[in-house]
Amino acid sequence: MNQTLRRLREGGGSRASANDDGRNGLMSVNIHEHMQRETSKSKTSKQRRNGNGKRDFLRAGFALISIVVISIFAGYNLNNNMYHKTDRESPGNHHQNLSHKNLKSPPLKKASYGLDLDDNKTKHSVDNKKQEQVRQCAFRTSPPHRYYYSDPTHKLPGFLADSTYIRGIAPTILDADPAKKICIDQPWEKERFDGRLPFSDGFNPSLLAVHAPHPMIDLYGKEAARSMMFLAFLRFSGSSCSYRDDNEMKEKFNISSHSFPGVRNVITILDSNFEWVDQSPILVELDADFGIDGGEQGWWGGTLTKMERLSYEGKYKFAHVARFLEDIKAFVHQGEVWISYLGQDYGYNGNLVLNKVHFDVAPWDRSRIFIYIKASEAIVICCGRNVAFFSDVDDKLKGVSWVDPLTVQVIEPGTRLASKNENSSEIHGTSDKMVHLPSSSELLGIAHFHRPKHRQGSFCWEDEEQESCNYAQFGHHYTHVLYTISDKAPHFLRRVSNEFMLPLHDTEKKNNAHIIQYASGLSIIGNTLVISYGINDCEPAIIQLPVAKLETLLLDDLPRGTEVRDLMYNLEPN
Questions:
Q1: DSSP letters of 78-129?
Q2: Beta bridge partners of 476
Q3: Strand pairing report for 500-501 and 172-173
Q4: Which of 118, 286, 288, 310 is most solvent-facing, going by the fewest CB within 10 Å?
Q5: Between 352 and 362, the higher pLDDT residue
């Protein structure tokens, strides 16, 4: 006990009892387990002394009083170092892997890859770990049926040949700089590393350019204050890295043989060159109830996590837990970083949730970033997804809820998003935010099609013999368009590009693309347009192109009142 007290006085209390794996999307600190262990040791010691008879009674009493006093003091010190725990018992947590590996804290400056090569719990050599990380930073190669043109002659399957396209023009490959993969450390994959690629490298990154908040400056140095940094919000859930691949195909393309490791979210912090600096989960501060009670629908209808006040008073008075934040999109409003998300907590019935994001230095380890949202600040709107947010001239938060017909709504508590118009085309909003083009008084967004139309997840479960089921369980053969709207109300469609696909990283296949591409982030940094996107629901990447190319891509202004559906035509015969 004296050693424990000494360790606490020296500032080591958080390491003594905190099993935190902050970079893997999960984190657990349980002060109660620590106190129970110490109390158990004390009770055992006390019983031995009492066995010596009445002559030890006073000594045992004195020891007990000492234990109480020391425990109170230890609790106070623990309170100043440890505040957070992972919710292990909430309904539905069987989806989440809550193992913790006591990983070494990340360096204060950016790492070359982000993989902790000093983790002595991993069974593999350092060389293997380096090779593993290189593979995580390198793009994957996919089986032939995962590419847009799987036929060498570029012959289109029937559901593509018979579709309509903007202006009746076949999609082209976007002329951009070579794609760059967003690196990420995956501690949860290390213990089951079998020489193959991880189950997934994360996907659909929402990229946000920020001037480093003070916690980042404190952690990453003054250089962070002078340069732009990026936050990439990544999603880890069911992946399409493999689809209908037999064992031979999995071995050939080094595809993981493991099962889905659980839902998690990870924020990757990148420098101005998009190199890995650090990463963190987003935790939820339970200063209010979080989520909704799913009732008869169970976890599908929602999962309620009750407010939890900590018994030890300190800077943080409430517990912080890892929850199921899916499909995160990030944007800036009134100078603050915000996210939208959906998922199990608020049910899968269409609720979209918004929260302001808070940044701090981790109380349990001053070398770690701490990123969280507050349950009390959650704004729930119904019902939809893929909303592109922006702040208007009056600093009101607005969102493009539908591209066709263009639908812009003020976003506030109680907002109900518009339903899809039955006469609209199959275009879907994609980007996390609209980007202002001040020189032309426009807001720029990106949207997508996937074909065949009306494709739903249950499609292949009900009729798996359909031709399109050979490609993916959900939407596939994505194409994208850039579009602009007027930056002031009344908002209307200004310009629309023709359809395009994002280029492969492999220059030898420059005339092809992946069948699943999801452009989830859009930013303009100086004179560069940056698009962040997911590949095959499996990898996160970015591409860059000069802003000047927008003038070529977006074509001329449309007559006012034109909608995307007015531009849809069948392909012209060759």
A1: HHTT-------SSTTGGGB------PPPPPSSPPSS---TT-TTSSS-HHHH
A2: none
A3: parallel
A4: 118
A5: 352
Contact in structure between 327 and 343 (CB atoms under 8 Å): yes
Residues paired with residue 236 on neighbouring β-strands, in sequence order: 264
Longest alpha-carbon distance in the chain: 104
Backbone CA torsion sign across 241, 243, 247, 251: negative
User: How far is it, in rounded angstroms, from Cα 430 to Cα 442?
Assistant: 18
Give pLDDT tens digits for 465-503.
566 777 887 889 999 999 999 999 999 999 999 999 999
Is 239:537 a contact under the CB 8 Å cutoff? yes
Q: Exposed, middle or buried: residue 56 (CB in 10 Å: 0-12, 13-18, 19+)? A: middle
What are the residues whose beta carbons fall under 8 Å from the beta carbon of 322, sequence distance 6 or more?
A: 25, 26, 27, 86, 87, 96, 264, 281, 283, 284
CA angle 249, 254, 255 (to 5 degrees): 75
Q: In angstroms, how far is CA 78 from the centroid of its own chain?
A: 31
Predicted confidence (pLDDT) at residue 84 exceeds the cutoff of 70: no
pTM: 0.78
* Cβ atoms within 10 Å, residue 226: 11
Residue 529 tokens, joined: 């347009």
Say which residues have a Cβ less than 8 Å from residue 82's Cβ, sequence separation at least 6: 13, 14, 17, 18, 29, 31, 363, 364
What is the reported pLDDT for 315? 85
